[in-house]
Amino acid sequence: MVKSPLSDPVGGAHGWLRSALLLGLLGLVPACRAADPFDQNEQLATPRRGAVVAEHPLAAQVGVTILNMGGNAADAAVATALALAVVYPQAGNLGGGGFALWVPHEGQPWSLDFRETTPAGYGTELYLDAKGAVVGDRSLNTPLGVGVPGSPQGLFELYKTHGSKSLRFAALCAPAIALAHDGFPVDSWLARDLRKASAKGRLMADPAARGLFYPGGEPLSEGEILVQPALARTLERYARGGQAAFYSGPTANAVVRTLIEADKRLGHIVGDRHMTTQDLADYRVQVRKPLVGWFRGHQVISMGPPSSGGLALLQVLAILDGFPLDDDRNKVRRDQALGLPAAAEACGLSARSTHWLVEAMRRAFADRAQHLGDPDFVDVPLNKLLAPEWIADRRISIGERSNPGVQAWRAAAPRESFQTTHLSVLDKHGNAVSMTTTLNTSFGSGILVADAGFLLNNELDDFSLAPGVPNTYGLIGAEANRLLPGKRPLSSMTPTVIREGGGRVSLVIGSPGGPRIITAVMQVVLRVLVYEQSLEDAITAPRLHQQWKPEWTRLEGGWPASVLETLESQHGQELRVEPKSKFGSVQAIQVLNNREPAAVSDPRRGGRAMVQP
Ligand code: DON
Question: What domains appear along the chain, each with residue ranges and CATH number?
Answer without folding.
Answer: 64-286+438-463 (no CATH), 291-403+494-611 (3.60.20.40)
